[in-house]
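Input/output pair, single chain:
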Amino acid sequence: MGITTKDLAQLCGVSRTTVHRALSGVGRIHPDTKERILKMAKEHDYRPDLLARGLVKGKTYYIGIVVLDVKNQYFAEMVSAIGAEMNRRGYCMNIMLHGNDRKMEKEQLTRLAAYHMDGIILSSVNEGEEYREFLESLDIPIVSVDNKIAEGLPFVSINEEAAMQEAVVR
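Output:
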């Protein structure tokens, strides 16, 4: 196991709060102290414990993405765009492929819920009121893309009629 913030605090003769301020760049800290802590962290190859951070903050910083496959150019581009935005915001993604299998999709969603994802982006093959109830029982924010599952669930798609008109007019 690597060096911890507690270890860094002891090595630098400061509090863990001061170490946190130096590493996160927030709060008041003397520039010399910050430099000393960052140097020590680099020398000892400090890496934050993301699991511990998640436990403290009540967030995993992971979003689940469940799609048909990534061989399809649409899904590949969607996952790529989502991944770029997640990286920018400090999140990671867990991609699951359901292969158009309704049962597998539910199993994957259950697994993602067990890993306490902060949210799920879902391109579902399932639909209907019963499935909406299943999704709500997972107690994780879920956004459906492409296929509207049921009323009351957040849903993102394109206006296909307007897109077709735009394509024909050009």
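Residues 159 and 165 are 10 Å apart (CA to CA). The beta strands are 62-67, 92-97, 119-122, 142-145, 155-156.
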